[in-house]
TrEMBL record:
EC number: 2.7.13.3
Reactions it catalyzes: ATP + protein L-histidine = ADP + protein N-phospho-L-histidine
Name by which UniProt lists this protein: histidine kinase
Species for this entry: hydrothermal vent metagenome
SUPFAM superfamilies for this protein: ATPase domain of HSP90 chaperone/DNA topoisomerase II/histidine kinase (SSF55874), Homodimeric domain of signal transducing histidine kinase (SSF47384)
Length: 351
């Protein structure tokens, strides 16, 4: 195929492409290579661009006669980037002894997202296994005890059965949240089409959580801006889940005898949203969240205080579910520490 056809094709590839001669001098680079590495690469020794021993060894083997080679390398920049490298000799008749006319093509494909996804999947499976194993181990232990020493001990039996019920409910909550997360992620790319009333959703959330608030001795204070008609494009059940998760957390972690403020207002501008938005702020009066934890709060199974979270019935998935639902609605979730006390969770939804 003529060179005037091949080179534009290489320029259009998403992988970084280099062509080198037998002295490792770069004779061609495509647009991706120029963008990702440097615009002025032609004429440089390849080692000046990619300083990776394994990659250079593979090139030497190609120069000595091997037809092709594939490997993975990591290049440390601002962040570590993982590349799949393919090296092939150009032209079956090309002889390594003729170094000036000898050519090899090197492609570097960024596979960092694939590796990150694999790592996330591995971590996710490990976390789920751990979260399920702990209550299962407790239940199995109590079953053995009830079969043995506590078989005829009524008081111990009632106590152990109560604990077993708590642990089984913990597993049910975890499985329910896993199913919710999976469903939300599957529909995240689909924009909601129906119009829903935010005021009605918030009021229903408060009514649903009233028994919990009473049990925790927490007052829920609702503030709605005057003359506001908060209609948004959304899926009612998902938005209800967002506010249930956030308000339930505020009640549980806000401290007994305190107040949770729920504030609905309209904003002309909102972070990450083109145009006006409605914002729902849920503000608690608890001990707050250490600032170093704020960026990771929406990660799956991330907890500031693991023991306290489990004691309160948390699965570590609630905020991850919130994040994905808000993203589906093309909104934004903002988490802040209040200067005086507590934390605030703000949901911005486009009008």
């Amino acid at each position: 195929m003529p060179q005037k056809i091949i080179l534009p094709v290489l320029d259009g590839l998403s992988a970084a492409i280099f062509i080198i001669d037998g002295n490792r001098k770069i004779t061609f680079v495509n647009k991706t290579a120029r963008r990702n590495f440097d615009p002025d690469l032609v004429g440089l020794d390849f080692v000046q661009v990619i300083r990776n021993p394994d990659c250079l060894k593979a090139i030497e083997k190609i120069i000595k006669g091997r037809k092709s080679s594939q490997l993975e390398i990591g290049i440390q920049g601002t962040i570590l980037t993982t590349y799949r490298v393919n090296i092939s000799r150009l032209g079956a008749k090309s002889k390594p002894q003729d170094l000036e006319n000898w050519r090899a093509i090197i492609s570097l494909e960024d596979i960092s997202p694939i590796r990150e996804a694999l790592t996330m999947r591995t971590d996710f499976v490990a976390n789920v296994s751990h979260e399920l194993r702990s209550p299962l181990t407790a239940i199995s232990g109590f079953i053995e005890t009830l079969k043995g020493t506590a078989k005829n001990d009524h008081e111990a039996r009632e106590k152990f059965l109560g604990i077993m019920e708590e642990q089984s409910q913990r597993m049910v909550r975890l499985i329910d949240d896993l199913l919710s997360l999976s469903k939300v992620q599957a529909s995240e790319h689909l924009l909601p089409k129906n119009s829903v009333d935010l005021v009605a959703i918030i009021k229903q959330t408060i009514a649903t959580l009233s028994p919990l608030a009473a049990a925790e001795d927490v007052k829920i204070n609702l503030e709605i801006a005057d003359n506001i008609e908060a209609m948004v494009k959304g899926e009612r059940d998902q938005l209800l889940q967002v506010f249930l998760n956030l308000m339930e957390n505020a009640i549980k972690y806000g401290g007994d005898g305190n107040q949770v403020d729920v504030v609905l207002s309209a904003k002309a501008k909102a972070p990450g949203i083109a145009g006006p938005a409605f914002v729902v702020e849920i503000i608690d009066q608890g001990i707050g969240i250490p600032r170093e934890h704020l960026p990771r709060l929406t990660e799956r199974f991330y907890r500031v205080d693991t023991g306290r979270s489990r004691q309160k019935g948390g699965t570590g998935l609630g905020l991850a579910i919130v994040k994905h639902i808000v993203a589906r609605h093309r909104g934004r979730l903002q988490i802040k520490n209040n200067d005086d006390r507590g934390a605030s969770f703000s949901v911005f939804l486009p009008q």
